[in-house]
Design a protein that fits this description.
- The chain has 956 residues and is mainly beta.
- It has eleven helices and 59 strands.
- The strands form 13 sheets. Strands 48, 49, 50, 51, 52, 53, 54, 55, 56, 57, 58 and 59 form a twelve-stranded antiparallel β-sheet that branches. It has an eight-stranded parallel β-sheet with strand order 30-29-28-27-26-33-32-31.
- Strand 43 and strand 44 form a beta hairpin.
- The longest helix is centred in the middle third of the chain and has 15 residues.
C-alpha cells in the first residue's frame, strides 16, 4: 500500500503576510521596459480542501488537458455555471468558525495553470518580476516547477523575482489559491466572498539599472503660486518635466511657478523618470494637504467632500473590473457632481487612481483591513490587538502606501474599516505618518482620534452632526480640535436615501463639518437568469445578510438610481436662489477652487409646466465662494396659468468628463400660483336599476363604489394607507430606534378592513361613510367619501379622522383604484421626471412629463415602494384626467401594493390585467434607517385628521 504525502499547507494559517515577495513599491501603468500580460484563459482545477491535491501540477510537463478553464482576472465562483461553487454574502459575520488563525478543513482551493512563451523581442539580459495585483485570499506560486513564494492580502500587489527561472518558450506558471486563510480574518468587508485571481497578472522585464521604488513629492505654495518637486528614487536618475523646463537629478528639489492640482481643476504635468535602464512616464499634480486651524485644507483652502464609498463591482465579473468600467464609474461621478471617493474598504485597482488623478476626485485610500466579525465576541482575539498579527497589518499598510503614494488624488490614508481598536492600528498609523507626512490619516474606529488626524463617524444622526458642527460634542481635547467627516452616511439601500439635503445644509453651515461619503456607489447584485439580480441567500448560503449587499446609488447594471439624481442636486456646486418675483436671482459659486468660466447659464419660463420662452443668462465669472445678483429678463405675458422661472447652469463646452450642455445645477422660482381647482358641484345623484349616476360617474347603489367615469371603467376605489415597505422602512435588526415597517406590519396596516357604514344620497352629493381598520386592534380611520359633480366632472372629497390611540405614523394616505390593463401612457403636470418622496424630492423638477406605466417603475433589486411622482397638479392615464386639491403623489403599476410587498426579486412581479393607481395626499418619509437614522420629524406622516379632493373627468 502506498500513501500520498499531503502537501504542506501551514502557510495558509500562518499569520504572516507571506514569503518570497519583493518589497512593495510604487505602481505605474507603463514604461519603456518590456512587459507581458498573463491575463486570459487559464487551466483550472477545484478541490474541496487545501491539501486534496499534491504539488505535482506545478511540475514541468504536467498534463492538465482534462482540466476546466477560467478567465483571469476573474472569480471562479462566478464562472462554470455553478460547477465551481457559489458566492457567499455576509455583512460582518465570518462564514466560518471564528478561531483565529485557523480556517475550516473545507477550504475550496483552485489550482491555476498558465503556459506561455516569451515574445521574440523579449530582452535576453536583465531580470524579470512577476506581478499579481489581486488574489483572494491566499496564493502560492510556482514558475517552471520552482516554488517562488506565497502571499496574503487580497486587494494588494505582490511581486516576485523570476528572471532566473524564465525560458524562451514553454514556461508554466502555477498558482494555488485558497478561499480561506489566516488573511480572511482581516478581510471581513461587507461584500461577497469571491475567491480567485481577480486582478491582472503581469510579467515585467527588469533591465539593469531599471526603476525600483520612487516617491514623487509635488507640493504647492498657495501664497506664491509655486510648486516644489522632488522625486526620491531607489535608483539614481533624472526627472524631466518639459512644460516646466525641469531637468533635475532624483533627490533634488526644484521650485517653479505651476498650476495646482485640485479635484475641480486637475492639472497634471507630464514628466519622465529616467534611470540607466528604464524610462517611466510621470503624471505630476502639485498640491499640499495640511491640517490647519482645525480644518483639512488643500492648497490653503478648506475642502468640502461630496463623496461616495466605492466598492469595486461588476454584476457578472465581481471585483474583476476592466479599465472602461472604472472610467465609466469616474465619469458618472463627475457628471453627478461627486468630488470624492473613499475606496471602501481596500485599495482599488491601481488604474482607478490614475483616472481620479486625470478627471479630478479627492480620494481617501483605505487599507485592505476589516475584522468586523469579532464584534460578536466583544472584540476578543481581534487581530488588530494581537502583536502576532502586527507584521501582517504593517505589510498591508506599506503595500497600500507604497503602491499609491504618487497619486495627487490621494489626500488621506485610511487604516481600514470596522476593525475595533488595538496596538496594531497604532503601529500602522505611526508607520504611515513616518513614511508620508504629506497626507492625513483616517480611521473611523479611532473615536478619540489618538492615532488619526480627522474625527470620523458613520451614520450619525442630523442632530448629532449639528452638535459636532457647533463643537458641543465633547470628547478628548485633541478630537475637539479636529475636522469632522461622515465617512459613511445616507445608506442607499433600496428606495432612498432620504434626508441627505438636510445633512448637506448642516455641512454648509458649520466649517468643522467637511462633508461626507454616501454609502455606497453600486448595488452588488449578481446577474442571474431566473432572479434578475441575486443577493445574499440566493445561492443557498448557510449564513447571509440578504439584500444588504444592494445598497448603492447605481443599480448593478450601472444605471443611476433616483438616489443618485437626488444626490447630484443636493451637492450641486452652484447655488441659484431667489423668489422669482423680484426679477433677480442670486448665483453663488459653491466650488472650493474653480471659477464659473466653464459654465453657461440659461433661463426658461414655464406656464402650466410648459416652456413658452427661453434664453441665455449673463452671469459674471465668479470665483469660488463669490455670489452675484443676476437680473432676469421681463417675464412673458401669461394669463390664467401657473408660471415659474427655471434657471440652469450647464457646461459651456465639451470637457473630458461631460459634453457641452450637460446640466450641472438648476433652480426653479414660482411667479404666479396655481389656478384653483373648480368646485365641480351642482348636479344631483340619481338612483336607477341598482345604480347611482352623478354627472359622468356611475356607482354601485348598494356599496356606493365608483364603477365608471364616463366610458372609463374604474374598480376598487378606496382609502389606501399601505406601501410595500422599503429597506429603510424596515430598518436594520441591530437598531434600537423605532423601525416603522415592522410596526406597521405588526399593527396590520397591510391588511386593513373596510367597513361600509352608510350610502347617502343628498340633493347635490353622494356620501359614502366607512371605517378603515386593522383586525385585532381598536384603532381605525373614519373615512367619508363625498362625491359631487357639475355634470361634466366628478369631484371626490375624502375626509379621514383617526380613531383610537395611533402611536405609529401612516405609510401613505390616499386612494387607490384600478383601471383597465390597456392603460399605458401617463401625462402629468407636477414633479418629475423621476420618483420623489417627502425627504427625497430635491431633484424633482416641476414640469409637464410623459411616461409609460412601466417607465414609472424604479427597478430596485428587492422590490419595494417606488415610483411616486410628487407635487402633481393633474395626471392623465387610461382616458381619465385627475386633478388634485391640493397637489398629490401619483403612482401607477401593473400589480397591487400587496403583490409588490410580497416580491423578493424583480422577476416575482407579473403584470396583471389591471393598472393600479395611487393618488396620495401624503407619504411617509424615506430616511436611511437600513443602516442609519429614520426620517426626520418633519417628514413623518402622522395619523391626523385630513381632507383632500380629486376631480375626475374623461379625457376628450
Amino acid at each position: 500500500m502506498t500513501f500520498r504525502t499531503p502537501p504542506s499547507i501551514d502557510y495558509v494559517e500562518d499569520v504572516s503576510p507571506g514569503s518570497g515577495a519583493l518589497p512593495p513599491r510604487a505602481w505605474y501603468a507603463s514604461s519603456d521596459a518590456a512587459s507581458l500580460s498573463l491575463n486570459g484563459n487559464w487551466r483550472f482545477r477545484l478541490s474541496a480542501t487545501a491539501d486534496a491535491e499534491d504539488e505535482a501540477f506545478a511540475e514541468p510537463g504536467y498534463d492538465a488537458g482534462d482540466w476546466a478553464e477560467v478567465s483571469v482576472p476573474g472569480h471562479w465562483v462566478l464562472q462554470g455555471d455553478g460547477s465551481f461553487g457559489s458566492p457567499i454574502y455576509t455583512n460582518h459575520l465570518y462564514p466560518f468558525p471564528v478561531d483565529p488563525p485557523r480556517v475550516p478543513t473545507e477550504n475550496p482551493t483552485g489550482d491555476h495553470l498558465r503556459a506561455f512563451d516569451l515574445p521574440s523581442d523579449w530582452p535576453s539580459d536583465g531580470g524579470a518580476v512577476l506581478r499579481f495585483d489581486g488574489v483572494e485570499s491566499c496564493a502560492r506560486v510556482w514558475l517552471n516547477g520552482t516554488d517562488v513564494g506565497e502571499f496574503k492580502g487580497s486587494r494588494l500587489p505582490h511581486e516576485f523575482a523570476v528572471g532566473h527561472l524564465l525560458k524562451p518558450g514553454g514556461n508554466v506558471l502555477a498558482v494555488r489559491v485558497h478561499q480561506w486563510s489566516a488573511g480572511s480574518y482581516l478581510e471581513d468587508q461587507d461584500q461577497w466572498w469571491l475567491p480567485g485571481i481577480f486582478r491582472d497578472v503581469t510579467l515585467l522585464h527588469r533591465p539593469a539599472g531599471s526603476v525600483l521604488d520612487f516617491f514623487v513629492q509635488a507640493s504647492y505654495d498657495h501664497t506664491t503660486g509655486e510648486g516644489t518637486l522632488k522625486v526620491d528614487s531607489d535608483v539614481a536618475g533624472r526627472v524631466t518635466v518639459p512644460a516646466l523646463d525641469i531637468d533635475v537629478a532624483t533627490g533634488e528639489s526644484v521650485t517653479v511657478p505651476v498650476e495646482p492640482w485640485t479635484a475641480e481643476t486637475p492639472k497634471l504635468y507630464d514628466g519622465v523618470l529616467a534611470t540607466e535602464g528604464e524610462r517611466v512616464p510621470l503624471r505630476i499634480g502639485f498640491r499640499t494637504v495640511v491640517l490647519d486651524d482645525g480644518l483639512i485644507k488643500v492648497n490653503g483652502r478648506p475642502v468640502l467632500f461630496k463623496g461616495v464609498n466605492r466598492h469595486e463591482w461588476h454584476p457578472e465579473k465581481g471585483r474583476a473590473l476592466d479599465l472602461e468600467t472604472m472610467r465609466e464609474d469616474v465619469l458618472l461621478m463627475k457628471r453627478h457632481n461627486i468630488n470624492a471617493v473613499r475606496t471602501s474598504h481596500y485599495p482599488p485597482h491601481p488604474a482607478f487612481l490614475d483616472l481620479c488623478d486625470e478627471y479630478g476626485l479627492w480620494v481617501i485610500d483605505e487599507c485592505d483591513l476589516e475584522t468586523h466579525g469579532f464584534v460578536e465576541q466583544a472584540w476578543r482575539d481581534n487581530p488588530v490587538d494581537d502583536d502576532r498579527w502586527t507584521p501582517a497589518l504593517l505589510d498591508r499598510a506599506a503595500r497600500m502606501v507604497e503602491r499609491d503614494k504618487n497619486h495627487p488624488s490621494v489626500v488621506i490614508w485610511s487604516l481600514g474599516n470596522e476593525a475595533g481598536t488595538g496596538r496594531g492600528l497604532t503601529a500602522m498609523a505611526e508607520w504611515i505618518h513616518g513614511r508620508d507626512s504629506s497626507r492625513l490619516v483616517h480611521y473611523e474606529g479611532d473615536t478619540n482620534c489618538r492615532d488619526t488626524d480627522v474625527y470620523s463617524r458613520m451614520y450619525a444622526s442630523h442632530a448629532e452632526v449639528e452638535r459636532i458642527g457647533r463643537e458641543l460634542d465633547g470628547g478628548t481635547h485633541k478630537r475637539r480640535e479636529l475636522p469632522f467627516i461622515l465617512c459613511e452616511y445616507g445608506h442607499a439601500m433600496g428606495n432612498g436615501p432620504g434626508g441627505i439635503a438636510d445633512y448637506q445644509r448642516l455641512f454648509e453651515s458649520y466649517d468643522r463639518l467637511q462633508g461626507g461619503f454616501i454609502w455606497e456607489w453600486i448595488d452588488h447584485g449578481i446577474k442571474h437568469p431566473e432572479l434578475g439580480y441575486a443577493y445574499g441567500g440566493d445561492f443557498g448560503e448557510e449564513l447571509h445578510d440578504g439584500n444588504f449587499v444592494c445598497d448603492g446609488l447605481l443599480f448593478p447594471d450601472r444605471e443611476p438610481s433616483p438616489g443618485l439624481g437626488e444626490y447630484k442636486k443636493v451637492i450641486e456646486p452652484v447655488r441659484i436662489e431667489g423668489d422669482g418675483d423680484g426679477g433677480t436671482v442670486r448665483v453663488r459659486n459653491a466650488h472650493d477652487f474653480a471659477d464659473l468660466s466653464a459654465l453657461a447659464f440659461e433661463w426658461s419660463f414655464q406656464v402650466d409646466g410648459e416652456t413658452v420662452e427661453s434664453g441665455s443668462l449673463s452671469v459674471p465669472v465668479l470665483a469660488a465662494g463669490e455670489s452675484a445678483e443676476v437680473k432676469l429678463p421681463e417675464p412673458p405675458e401669461a394669463r390664467g396659468g401657473e408660471t415659474q422661472w427655471t434657471v440652469r447652469a450647464v457646461l459651456a463646452a465639451d470637457t473630458v468628463w461631460g459634453p457641452k450642455g450637460h446640466q450641472v445645477a438648476w433652480a426653479q422660482f414660482p411667479v404666479s400660483g396655481r389656478v384653483p381647482v373648480p368646485a365641480a358641484a351642482g348636479a344631483a345623484p340619481a338612483l336607477t336599476d341598482g345604480r347611482i349616476t352623478l354627472g359622468p360617474g356611475t356607482f354601485d347603489a348598494r356599496t356606493g363604489a365608483l364603477t365608471a367615469v364616463g366610458g372609463v371603467d374604474v374598480t376598487g376605489l378606496r382609502l389606501d394607507v399601505w406601501r410595500a415597505t422599503t429597506d429603510n422602512d424596515d430598518g436594520a435588526e441591530w437598531q434600537t430606534d423605532l423601525r416603522y415597517g415592522l410596526m406597521w406590519r405588526k399593527l396590520g396596516l397591510h391588511r386593513m378592513r373596510h367597513r361600509l357604514d352608510a350610502v347617502e344620497l343628498g340633493d347635490g352629493a353622494l356620501t359614502v361613510r366607512t371605517r378603515v381598520a386593522p383586525a385585532a386592534w381598536e384603532v381605525g380611520l373614519a373615512t367619508v367619501y363625498r362625491w359631487t359633480s357639475d355634470g361634466q366632472r366628478l369631484r371626490l372629497t375624502v375626509s379621514v379622522g383617526p380613531e383610537g390611540d395611533w402611536t405609529v405614523p401612516l405609510p401613505r394616505l390616499g386612494i387607490r383604484f384600478g383601471l383597465s390593463g390597456s392603460a399605458d401612457r401617463v401625462t402629468w403636470f407636477g414633479g418629475g421626471p423621476g420618483e420623489a418622496y417627502p425627504d427625497t424630492r430635491s431633484a424633482s423638477q416641476l414640469g409637464r412629463w410623459e411616461s409609460t406605466v412601466d417607465g414609472l417603475q424604479t427597478p430596485y433589486v428587492r422590490p419595494q415602494e417606488n415610483g411616486a411622482r410628487a407635487d402633481v397638479r393633474w395626471a392623465e392615464i387610461g382616458g381619465l384626467r385627475i386633478e388634485g386639491d391640493p397637489e398629490f403623489f401619483f403612482s401607477a403599476r401593473r400589480w397591487t401594493n400587496e403583490q409588490l410587498d410580497a416580491a423578493r426579486h424583480r422577476t416575482d412581479l407579473t403584470p396583471g390585467d389591471t393598472v393600479w393607481v395611487n393618488l396620495d395626499h401624503g407619504q411617509h418619509g424615506i430616511g436611511s434607517q437600513s443602516c442609519g437614522p429614520g426620517p426626520l420629524p418633519q417628514y413623518v406622516l402622522r395619523a391626523e385628521p385630513a381632507e383632500f379632493s380629486f376631480v375626475f373627468s374623461e379625457v376628450s
